Amino acid sequence: MAITASKAELLDKVQQGYVQFEDLLAPLSKEQMTTPNVNSTWSIKDNIAHLTVWQNYLLSRLRGVIDGSMSEPEFLSLPGTEDEQNEQVYQQNKDRPLADVLADFRSSYQSVLATIQSMSEESLNGTFPWSTSDRQVWPLIVGNTYEHYAEHSAIIQHWLESVRGQA
C-alpha cells in the first residue's frame, strides 16, 4: 500500500524549508555568496542556481501531472549522469550575476508553491501519468524542495563555520 501525504503538511514543510534557507542566506554579503570552493568549486550562488534548476525540474513534472501528459516532460537535455548534469548546470550558471540567480530561485519557488497549491491531494498522492511504475508525486516534491534546501543549507553552514574558524 502506498504511503500518502497530507497536502497541508506538505505545503507547510515546503514553506518552512524555504524560509529556513532564506534565513540562512539573509545575513550573507555578496562576497560570501560568490566566494568559490563552498563545495568543490561552487559558491553559495552556484548552490542556489543548482536548487533553481531542480525546482524547475519539479515544476515541469508537476505541470505534466496537472495536464495529464502521457509522455514524460522534457527538461534537462544534458547527457550524462546526474553529477555530470549538475556540473554542466554549474558551467552554464557560474558567471551569472548573483541578483539574477536569487531572483530566478525565488521566482521558481513561488511557481512551485503555487503549482502545489493548485493540485488536489489525490493528484499529489497519485502517480505520474507517463510512468509505468507506482512512483508517487509527493516524494519528488519533498526531494526537490525542503529536503534539497536542507542538504544545501548543511553544505553552506559547514563552509561558513570553516571560514569563521580560519578568521
From TrEMBL:
This is ClbS/DfsB family four-helix bundle protein.
